[in-house]
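so the lab meeting is tmrw and i was supposed to have these ready like two days ago... anyway. pasting both below. for each one the top line is the aa sequence and the line under it is the structure tokens. i havent really looked at them closely yet so no promises
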Amino acid sequence: MGIYENKAIALAEKYQTANPFCICNNMGIKIEYANLDNPLGDTIYLNKSPIILLSNKIQGKHEKYFVCAHELGHVVLHNGIQNYYLINRTTKRKMESEADRFAMVCWKSFQLKSLVFRMNIF
């Protein structure tokens, strides 16, 4: 496993959850819904504090967990990069790929824990 996946696992272990909304809450990261079309999520900084914006379109959908985890990945992996869209295309693709890898670990862990909970295994 790579550094991105390990960071996702470390956060899940630290906060005893893989739910990105709970992790953001524990880290003091605000999440707000906004009229976003494409992309479905974004991260902005206000006074050096990250705010994750999610599209209203995904508010009631499971997709919101992946998008939130992806944006959380940017905060954790690329903290302080506020002028994201000024970065060259190659770096931007790399950062998106890293955030996706981070989000996949969160998503898989969250889905697995949700399934285990529903099956009353624990």
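ok protien two:
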Amino acid sequence: MIELRELAPRDAAALVGIYSGQAVKYLPRAPMDAAEARHYVRDAMAAAAHIPRTLYVLGLDVDGDLLGVVKLHCDRPVAAISYILRTDAWGRGHATEGVRQILSLAFEHLGLPEVRAKHHPANSASGRVLLKAGFTPTGERAGLMTYSTRPSFQHPRSTTWPSLSFSPSRPSTC
């Protein structure tokens, strides 16, 4: 079962595997090392505790195995999502389901009017994830393909709130 959950200190080693190799090819960053992973978890936990909450950094967990990270950024004029998946988990629908679940949080719980996303033009798989999750292409900006979605779109999803293993009930500025 796929679930989104808060990150914990035990996830640092898995993050090194997620933010590595081909998974960071189209990102403006280098692979993550162990020290950065520990810092990343601390930052994610601090964001979860911040009131009001402006950033959701959630682990994409499949049957106890952390396969990726899905984020909802509420610290900008229009909320945005981002995601990354460990390369050995590509092509199985996990990223699409993670995006669908974060959209459920954004629209059904937080009541956001719109969510945006972007990807590198050479990363067509990421574009397919966004399309399958209900996003519409909006063009190109700063060399990246841009997308948007609104709650009026009937987002396809197989699992939503029962698979979210965190409490989204805290105040948020989203």
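from a quick look at the 2nd one: Strands lie at 2-6, 55-62, 65-73, 79-85, 115-119, 136-141, 144-149, 164-165. The chain has a mean pLDDT of 90. will dig more after coffe
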